[in-house]
Design goal:
It is a single chain. The protein is α/β, with parallel strands linked by helices and 162 residues long. The protein has one domain: 3-Layer(aba) Sandwich (Glutaredoxin). It is built from 4 helices and 7 strands, in the order αβββαβαβββα. The strands form 2 sheets. A 5-stranded mixed beta sheet has the order 5-4-3-6-7, covered by helices on one side. Strands 1-2 form a two-stranded antiparallel sheet. The radius of gyration is 18 Å and the shape is globular.
Protein backbone atom coordinates (compact mmCIF):
# COMPACT_ATOMS: atom_id res chain seq x y z
CA UNK A 1 0.00 0.00 0.00
CA UNK A 2 2.74 2.44 0.96
CA UNK A 3 4.62 1.86 -2.30
CA UNK A 4 1.62 3.24 -4.23
CA UNK A 5 1.25 6.32 -2.06
CA UNK A 6 4.18 8.32 -3.48
CA UNK A 7 3.44 7.59 -7.18
CA UNK A 8 -0.23 8.41 -6.62
CA UNK A 9 0.65 11.67 -4.88
CA UNK A 10 3.00 12.63 -7.72
CA UNK A 11 0.37 11.84 -10.32
CA UNK A 12 -2.24 13.96 -8.51
CA UNK A 13 0.21 16.84 -8.15
CA UNK A 14 1.05 16.67 -11.87
CA UNK A 15 -2.62 16.68 -12.83
CA UNK A 16 -3.32 19.61 -10.53
CA UNK A 17 -0.49 21.62 -12.09
CA UNK A 18 -1.59 20.72 -15.61
CA UNK A 19 -5.13 21.91 -14.97
CA UNK A 20 -3.82 25.10 -13.36
CA UNK A 21 -1.76 25.78 -16.48
CA UNK A 22 -4.65 25.06 -18.84
CA UNK A 23 -5.50 28.30 -20.57
CA UNK A 24 -2.04 29.73 -19.94
CA UNK A 25 -0.83 29.05 -23.49
CA UNK A 26 -2.49 30.00 -26.74
CA UNK A 27 -2.72 27.27 -29.38
CA UNK A 28 -0.67 27.80 -32.53
CA UNK A 29 -3.86 27.50 -34.59
CA UNK A 30 -6.65 28.33 -32.12
CA UNK A 31 -10.33 27.60 -32.51
CA UNK A 32 -12.98 29.95 -31.21
CA UNK A 33 -16.76 29.73 -31.33
CA UNK A 34 -18.56 32.19 -29.07
CA UNK A 35 -22.03 33.72 -28.76
CA UNK A 36 -22.04 37.43 -29.56
CA UNK A 37 -23.93 40.11 -27.66
CA UNK A 38 -26.25 40.67 -30.65
CA UNK A 39 -27.45 37.04 -30.51
CA UNK A 40 -25.22 35.71 -33.28
CA UNK A 41 -22.22 33.41 -33.19
CA UNK A 42 -18.64 34.24 -34.06
CA UNK A 43 -16.66 31.26 -35.35
CA UNK A 44 -13.00 31.84 -36.12
CA UNK A 45 -13.09 29.01 -38.68
CA UNK A 46 -15.61 31.00 -40.76
CA UNK A 47 -12.93 33.66 -41.28
CA UNK A 48 -10.16 31.53 -42.79
CA UNK A 49 -8.59 33.52 -45.59
CA UNK A 50 -8.92 36.76 -43.59
CA UNK A 51 -6.86 38.37 -40.89
CA UNK A 52 -8.75 38.27 -37.60
CA UNK A 53 -8.28 40.44 -34.54
CA UNK A 54 -9.24 38.72 -31.27
CA UNK A 55 -9.35 41.46 -28.65
CA UNK A 56 -9.91 40.88 -24.93
CA UNK A 57 -11.21 43.99 -23.13
CA UNK A 58 -13.26 45.15 -20.14
CA UNK A 59 -15.66 48.01 -19.42
CA UNK A 60 -13.42 49.30 -16.61
CA UNK A 61 -10.22 49.20 -18.72
CA UNK A 62 -9.27 52.71 -19.87
CA UNK A 63 -6.69 51.54 -22.46
CA UNK A 64 -9.29 49.11 -23.84
CA UNK A 65 -11.82 51.89 -24.27
CA UNK A 66 -9.19 54.11 -25.89
CA UNK A 67 -8.22 51.48 -28.50
CA UNK A 68 -11.77 50.49 -29.49
CA UNK A 69 -12.36 53.32 -32.00
CA UNK A 70 -8.99 52.65 -33.66
CA UNK A 71 -9.68 48.92 -33.92
CA UNK A 72 -13.12 49.67 -35.30
CA UNK A 73 -11.75 52.06 -37.93
CA UNK A 74 -9.07 49.53 -38.88
CA UNK A 75 -11.65 46.79 -39.43
CA UNK A 76 -13.90 49.11 -41.44
CA UNK A 77 -11.03 50.19 -43.71
CA UNK A 78 -9.66 46.69 -44.43
CA UNK A 79 -11.90 44.28 -46.32
CA UNK A 80 -9.54 41.40 -45.49
CA UNK A 81 -9.77 41.93 -41.71
CA UNK A 82 -12.43 40.74 -39.26
CA UNK A 83 -12.51 41.13 -35.49
CA UNK A 84 -14.16 39.90 -32.33
CA UNK A 85 -14.06 41.79 -29.05
CA UNK A 86 -14.39 39.62 -25.95
CA UNK A 87 -15.39 41.32 -22.70
CA UNK A 88 -13.21 39.61 -20.12
CA UNK A 89 -14.68 40.50 -16.77
CA UNK A 90 -16.95 39.13 -14.10
CA UNK A 91 -19.90 41.46 -14.51
CA UNK A 92 -23.58 41.38 -15.31
CA UNK A 93 -24.60 41.27 -18.96
CA UNK A 94 -26.73 44.41 -18.47
CA UNK A 95 -23.62 46.41 -17.55
CA UNK A 96 -21.85 45.31 -20.72
CA UNK A 97 -24.94 46.05 -22.83
CA UNK A 98 -25.10 49.58 -21.37
CA UNK A 99 -21.39 50.07 -22.11
CA UNK A 100 -21.83 48.91 -25.73
CA UNK A 101 -24.64 51.42 -26.30
CA UNK A 102 -22.18 54.22 -25.53
CA UNK A 103 -19.06 52.69 -27.11
CA UNK A 104 -20.16 51.40 -30.51
CA UNK A 105 -17.77 49.35 -32.64
CA UNK A 106 -17.85 47.94 -36.17
CA UNK A 107 -17.18 44.36 -35.10
CA UNK A 108 -19.06 41.83 -33.00
CA UNK A 109 -18.65 41.70 -29.24
CA UNK A 110 -19.02 38.78 -26.86
CA UNK A 111 -18.79 38.19 -23.13
CA UNK A 112 -16.18 35.68 -22.05
CA UNK A 113 -16.61 33.57 -18.94
CA UNK A 114 -13.70 34.26 -16.59
CA UNK A 115 -14.56 31.07 -14.69
CA UNK A 116 -14.44 28.92 -17.84
CA UNK A 117 -11.58 30.30 -19.96
CA UNK A 118 -11.54 29.77 -23.69
CA UNK A 119 -9.85 26.48 -24.51
CA UNK A 120 -7.40 27.66 -27.19
CA UNK A 121 -6.51 31.12 -25.89
CA UNK A 122 -4.42 31.89 -22.84
CA UNK A 123 -6.33 33.41 -19.99
CA UNK A 124 -5.74 37.18 -20.05
CA UNK A 125 -3.65 38.33 -17.10
CA UNK A 126 -3.89 41.97 -18.14
CA UNK A 127 -6.07 43.96 -20.51
CA UNK A 128 -6.25 44.76 -23.29
CA UNK A 129 -4.84 41.60 -24.85
CA UNK A 130 -5.04 41.17 -28.61
CA UNK A 131 -4.20 38.32 -30.94
CA UNK A 132 -3.77 38.79 -34.67
CA UNK A 133 -4.76 35.59 -36.45
CA UNK A 134 -3.33 35.08 -39.95
CA UNK A 135 -5.47 33.93 -42.88
CA UNK A 136 -4.19 30.36 -42.41
CA UNK A 137 -5.56 30.34 -38.83
CA UNK A 138 -2.23 30.64 -37.04
CA UNK A 139 -1.45 33.26 -34.41
CA UNK A 140 0.64 35.85 -36.24
CA UNK A 141 1.16 38.21 -33.31
CA UNK A 142 0.14 38.77 -29.69
CA UNK A 143 -0.17 42.33 -28.39
CA UNK A 144 -0.11 42.90 -24.63
CA UNK A 145 -1.56 46.32 -23.86
CA UNK A 146 -3.23 48.71 -26.27
CA UNK A 147 -2.68 48.22 -30.00
CA UNK A 148 -3.06 50.77 -32.76
CA UNK A 149 -4.11 50.42 -36.36
CA UNK A 150 -0.54 51.26 -37.37
CA UNK A 151 0.84 48.38 -35.30
CA UNK A 152 -1.70 46.01 -36.83
CA UNK A 153 -0.78 47.26 -40.31
CA UNK A 154 2.93 46.57 -39.64
CA UNK A 155 2.19 43.11 -38.26
CA UNK A 156 0.12 42.21 -41.32
CA UNK A 157 2.78 43.56 -43.69
CA UNK A 158 5.45 41.52 -41.89
CA UNK A 159 3.53 38.26 -42.42
CA UNK A 160 2.41 38.24 -46.07
CA UNK A 161 -0.28 35.75 -47.01
CA UNK A 162 0.64 32.86 -49.29
Amino acid sequence: MKRFLLPTALLLATLACASAWAGSVTAEKPTLRIATLDGGTFDLADHRGQWVIVNFWATWCAPCIKEMPDLSAFVESHANVAAIGIAWEDTERAEIDAFVKVHKVAYPLAQGDVYAPLADFEEPRGLPLTFLIAPDGRVARKFVGPVSGGELEKAIAAKPTK
